[in-house]
Amino acid sequence: MLLAVSICLLGLQNIDQAKAAYCDCDGPWISGIGPEGTITTDSTSIVADLATEGDSFRPASVAVTLDGAPVTGCTVEAPDWNHAYPYAYGGGWVDCPVSGLAAGEHSYTISATDRYNALSTAYGSFTVQLTSADTIAPSIDSIVPSGYKNSTSADVAVYYSDAGSGVNPASVSVTWDGTALACAAVSDVYASCPQTGLPQGSHTIGISLADNAGNPAADSGTVFIDNRSPSVMSGYAPANNATINTASPTISFTAYDRLASGYSDPATTSGVDFSTIVVTLDGSAISCSVDSGTGAVSCPTSGLAEGAHTWNYTFKDMAGNERNTNRSFTVQTCTSGQPALGLASASPFWASYADYVDRMLSVSYAVSNGAGSNNAVNVQIVGASATNGVTLASTAPVSVGDIAMGSSANVTLVYSVPNGVGSFKSTISATAQDACGGSYSYPTP
């Protein structure tokens, strides 16, 4: 960059002096300045050619600054300069050696006056890029993707940096399992190589590059591709839609990561993330033990109510693929079936003299439940018919209660017996339930 200005410094005291004086307001020509652009060393010379048009310049007036500070040790020459005079006719030049320059941009000025003190100043700049002094390799900052990924598409990307000469984009090479990738974008700070159809399993992403000084760097990273959900092996318990006869079942299953063939293969499946296993029973989480070696999950329960229950398990593999499944079972701790009820005996009697007078006959029945059947629950006499005009005076239903299998219970019914009747036959109707709540009728127990 070159910029030159001239300023006439001739001091005129009054109008008469101005009429008589010769004012050269064109300062010396300053051209051919340097350096310009980019240099690759930390030392150089600031130079310029000095010339006048029919006049002279003052060698002692030549001044050079670098980044705002004066530069010393400059050499100023003019071929026809008589050193007895403070100025020289014709052309000349200036040469100012500088060293120890830091990397980056620098600016400088060169100024001079002619014999009439007309000032010219030129401005220049240059950049120091210490390529030859850069011996530090670039830094590879990150490689993505890494770890586990549950997609077969990815933007394979590498990020890098170099504080010295900078990374040379033309040197960047990204590989997938040793095969070079075609990258969509490569710069001095990153390379982006979008990929689709990536195969399952573990893969290596490689990167090699160099800076502009030729210092090489290389690194690699791994990524595991797995986009298939984990599963459970057969044999989970209770079986789906099963009816069980315990109120304290252990819910269990075996978690594993599968292939399409149904078997786990560490080379192409990421494996179960056992920390993600959650089991719920009827909507509430339950405590489970997990064997990470076999994948066995065991969840004890207790005190479950009779009837239907729903349980759910969720877990993920290391790549984040999830398995979420509902199962159900029914708790039925009772044994269903009709109890074997019957009348074991009947004993008639007059409960009082008043009953005798009123013809109200009491009959005590022994109701039995046969051995080997089921417990009878809530046994009731719901009605009785009789011959010879006899009617049931007791208000139905008459409760008998529960009768365990192999035992009996007594119940007394009162009949209204007409005068003159010496005997009659009665048919009794009853109902009962089994322990599971099934209802049964006994027209003729």
Description of the structure:
Strand 20 (201-210) and strand 21 (216-225) form a beta hairpin. This protein has two helices and 38 strands. The termini are far apart. The protein is mainly β and 445 residues long. Helix content is 3%, strand content 52%. The protein folds into four domains: 3-131, Immunoglobulins (Immunoglobulin-like), CATH 2.60.40; 139-225, Immunoglobulin-like (Sandwich), CATH 2.60.40; 231-331, Immunoglobulin-like (Sandwich); 341-442, Immunoglobulin-like. The strands form nine sheets. Strands 1, 3, 6, 7, 11 and 12 form a six-stranded mixed sheet that branches. A five-stranded mixed sheet has the order 14-21-20-16-17, with no helix packed on it. It is rod-shaped.
List keywords for this structure.
445 residues; mainly beta; Immunoglobulin-like; 4 domains; five-stranded mixed beta sheet; 2 helices; disordered N terminus
**CATH-defined topology of the largest domain:** Immunoglobulin-like
Main β sheet profile: 6 strands, mixed
What class would the helix/strand composition place it in?
mainly beta
Could you say what the CATH architecture of the largest domain is?
Answer: Sandwich
Uncertain regions: pLDDT < 50 for 5+ in a row?
A: 1-22
Helix content: under 10%
